[in-house]
TrEMBL record:
Record-given protein name: Aldo/keto reductase
GO molecular function annotations of the record: oxidoreductase activity, acting on the CH-OH group of donors, NAD or NADP as acceptor
Keyword Oxidoreductase: yes
Family matches, as InterPro entries: AKR, AKR5G, Aldo/ket_reductase_CS, NAD(P)_OxRdtase_dom_sf, NADP_OxRdtase_dom
Limits of the NADP-dependent oxidoreductase domain: 22-264
Keywords: NADP, Oxidoreductase
Taxonomic superkingdom: Bacteria
Originating organism: Neobacillus cucumis
Family: Belongs to the aldo/keto reductase family.
PROSITE patterns referenced in this protein's UniProt entry, alphabetically: ALDOKETO_REDUCTASE_1 (PS00798), ALDOKETO_REDUCTASE_2 (PS00062), ALDOKETO_REDUCTASE_3 (PS00063)
Length: 279
């Protein structure tokens, strides 16, 4: 059983990544993001996930700097945005993100979307490989890559991705992609694991939650981890930030895991990787 907030999965290069992290998508730059990240760190989160396009890297960096958590205990992720893809522009975007975060290195750097119409992600990946070889980042990966994008990247890369961060929740559990990632030792990571709160009244989830005296959100996050998926819920409410982390004192049965998996509708709720970023 995954024991606590410090529990980690081991990526294909040996780096340890926390199973549960804190996401800051749509968290406003300034006081809101600083306070949210500080709260998360106080609760015990050690993995923080941001992105250049979120516009809050400086606030995340400020919260980290003002916390008492040693840098080596943290796992910080950010992402290169679509408009910065390409070899040289990715290297420049990395420096910008690192400066905004106020860090000397990153734990994980991701390509945010494949943007297949521009055909740049292989060049972008070569820049990530350089950053990795130079010791600027401990792990590199992708976000929102489908199987076809991963196959293309694997055929053209020197270092295979360590992580693929994608839309993943009970209504869209991406079984084919998850199986492909497991087979290729790429850790799947869930963004929007709670589907922005729209799953929290689902009767199956509520029934399981009542059994364990937990919330539906806690059941979903526990399902993520028990199905081998790293998860990064987001909230700006201190009680929710704490509640989302309180998932290590119960374990779902195989029957319950299967029950939750049957909620799948193979239907994206958010952006399609084949479309996002097209001109």
């Amino acid at each position: 059983m995954t024991k606590n907030l410090l529990s980690t999965t081991t990526l294909n290069n040996g780096v340890k990544m926390p199973w549960l992290g804190f996401g800051v998508f749509k968290v406003q730059e300034g006081e809101e993001v600083v306070n949210s990240v500080k709260t998360a760190l106080e609760v015990g989160y050690r993995s923080i996930d941001t992105a250049a396009i979120y516009g809050n890297e400086e606030g995340v960096g400020k919260a980290i700097a003002e916390s008492n958590v040693p840098r080596e205990e943290l796992f910080v992720t950010t992402k290169v945005w679509n408009g910065d893809q390409g070899y040289e522009s990715t290297l420049a975007a990395f420096e910008t993100s690192l400066n905004k975060l106020g860090l000397d290195y990153l734990d994980l750097y991701l390509i945010h979307w494949p943007v297949p119409s521009k055909g740049l992600y292989v060049e972008t990946w070569k820049a990530l490989e350089k950053l990795y070889k130079d010791g600027r980042v401990r792990a590199i990966g992708v976000s929102n890559f489908n199987v076809n994008h991963l196959e293309d990247l694997l055929a053209n890369c020197e270092i295979k991705p360590m992580v693929n961060q994608v839309e993943y929740h009970p209504v869209f559990n991406q079984k084919e992609l998850h199986d492909f990632c497991k087979k290729n030792e790429i850790q799947l990571e869930a963004w929007s694991p709670l589907m922005q709160g729209s799953l929290l009244n689902d009767p199956v989830l509520v029934e399981i939650a009542n059994k364990y005296k937990k919330s539906a959100a806690q059941v979903i996050l526990r399902w993520d981890i028990q199905t081998g998926v790293v998860t990064i819920p987001k909230s700006i409410k201190p009680h929710r930030i704490a509640e989302n982390a309180d998932i290590f004192d119960f374990e779902l049965t195989q029957e319950e895991l299967n029950q939750i998996s049957t909620l799948n509708q193979n239907q994206r709720q958010f952006g399609d990787p084949e479309v996002v970023g097209r001109d």
